[in-house]
Amino acid sequence: MRDIANESRPSDVRAASSARDGGDDVSDSAVEVKGLVKRYGDMLALDYFDLDVRRGEIFGLLGPNGSGKSTAINCILALLTYDEGEIRVFGEPVTPTSYDVKRRIGIVPQNVAVFNELTVTENIDYFCSLYVTERKRRAELVDQAIDFVGLGEFRRFRPGKLSGGLKRRLNIACGIAHRPELIFFDEPTVAVDPQSRNAILEGIQRLNREGATIVYTSHYMEEVERIADRILIMDHGRHLALGTAEELKNMIGMGERISVATLDLDDVTLRRIRALPFVIEAAWDGKELDVRCRRGERNLADLLDMLNASGVNVGHLTSRPPSLNDVFLELTGTALRDSADSDGTEE
């Protein structure tokens, strides 16, 4: 994909989107989900789940395997029926036959969904033809999609000849060729190299700058924190927390996490550190002391005072603010990434 990291994001994306769809009387929401309930027999997959995605934003949806992310998306796309609740996309209720609304939606699935018998160009043309029947216009859109994901030199290649990262780019091109206004990305960077991952994330940001509303799911929290305007954390089919990355971090009691390189910490000193009023948890692996702290202005200074008073030699020292993983750990008791299967798939 082309290098777009330094492009600025216009501040009027939502305003332009609203004007395009009819002016100020149009709802600011691209997706509205209220009280959604989905059962599989005795299992409650969605438990009165709520979601509100604003037009023009990148919306991150986080949750471990089995949290209900994919179920919620499939209900929104009318691929699954549900037991209770209300779903609207661009202000319209969505049913299996809501073709006008569905033409405005794109989906990039977690698993690469292309035809191995077709070339790159033929694959993109096929998926684009599901929405655009005019050949001339479709040819233009296919060329634009190929250029967008940087597959120009691979036009005649079949998927079997592409690397994993290039297949992911082809998967994206097939989902966006018809220029949808709302795009769902479900784990688009699973099992790709860092260079391809960076290119994919930059491409998603560019789509957003060009006016598309993005719903992005991932097990990689640093990706979501990098690109999302707002983030919703869900588990067991329920809405747990919603906000910007900084707002989510401010919801929890944890402050910074301090790491101290030291080889001579003893059990007595470790117990004293754990007894400090601002310490949530402290662990030492023989080489590094790791301390999770509550919020406070003197945590680092007080910890160093304790170590110096105990005669502990201190090496490299780092202090970092709480991460999204810390937020999820405090909300659910489970680290998000640890909940993912090795291949990143969701059950």
Automatic annotation (TrEMBL):
InterPro entries per the UniProt record, alphabetical: AAA+_ATPase, ABC_transporter-like_ATP-bd, DrrA1/2-like_C, P-loop_NTPase
Keywords for this protein: ATP-binding, Nucleotide-binding, Transport
Biased composition (Basic and acidic residues): 1-12
Any coiled-coil regions, as ranges: none
Region spans: Disordered: 1-27
Gene3D superfamilies cross-referenced by the UniProt entry: P-loop containing nucleotide triphosphate hydrolases
Oxidoreductase in keyword set: no
Sample GO molecular function, one term: ATP hydrolysis activity
All residue ranges annotated as the ABC transporter domain in the record: 31-261
Stored PANTHER family: LINEARMYCIN RESISTANCE ATP-BINDING PROTEIN LNRL
Name of the protein described by the UniProt record: ABC transporter ATP-binding protein
